[in-house]
Amino acid sequence: MNASDVMTTSLVTVGPQTPVTEIVTLLLRHGISAVPVVDAHATVLGLVSEGDLLRRAELGTEKKKSSWRSFFTGTARLAGDYVRSHGKVASDVMTRDVICVGPGTTLDAIADLMEEHHIKRVPVVQERRLIGLVSRANLLRAFAALPPVTAVAAASDAEIRAALMKELSAQAWSRRADNSVVVTGGVVHLWGLVTSEAESRALELAAQTVAGVREVQNHTVVLSDATYPIYPGSYIGG
Fold this sequence. Notes:
CBS-domain, alpha/beta, Histidine-containing Protein, Chain: A, 3-stranded mixed sheet, elongated
């Protein structure tokens, strides 16, 4: 799926001269956490989010620096903080370096951007004109709308094992040896040592995604745990 498949198109926007008090009212009235700032041609100029309104002089939450900290902070930064906490219109408080995507941007690329830049939403633009917005909530809704997994045709134990080993070989965290995966009657048995509970769980999930698997039995042992079989017929510490 792409941005155009999940984006919100009924957008609330403001102009650069929209008063901050009006922006606050819009956020509360529409139950949203941010509004794009656009010009007369719908070009994105910035974004005002709840985070941009966190430091306000009216609330006494503006950033306060001791005199020695202020000495080591550039005057441009100090002046910028003052403008954001005392600003009267959108252009005073908005985040200017807004990351935008196109309607054809894939959801995995959008998720990468959100994670890398620690952002919660991205405007969708076409020919520089705002046409939508993709937020984390949009991604969750897309996930919730996925059709249920349907039953798949049965696979032989050899096919299941080959598919699982192929999947594990592509994962940097996996060090599975051939004798650590046994498949019998569609049931996958996982054996051996793992370095963490997360690795053990990842093995289970990888096995569960293979077509034809009926059940997964996890016999792996976290390195710090007590003595248990490493693989069928073998025991640690003998």
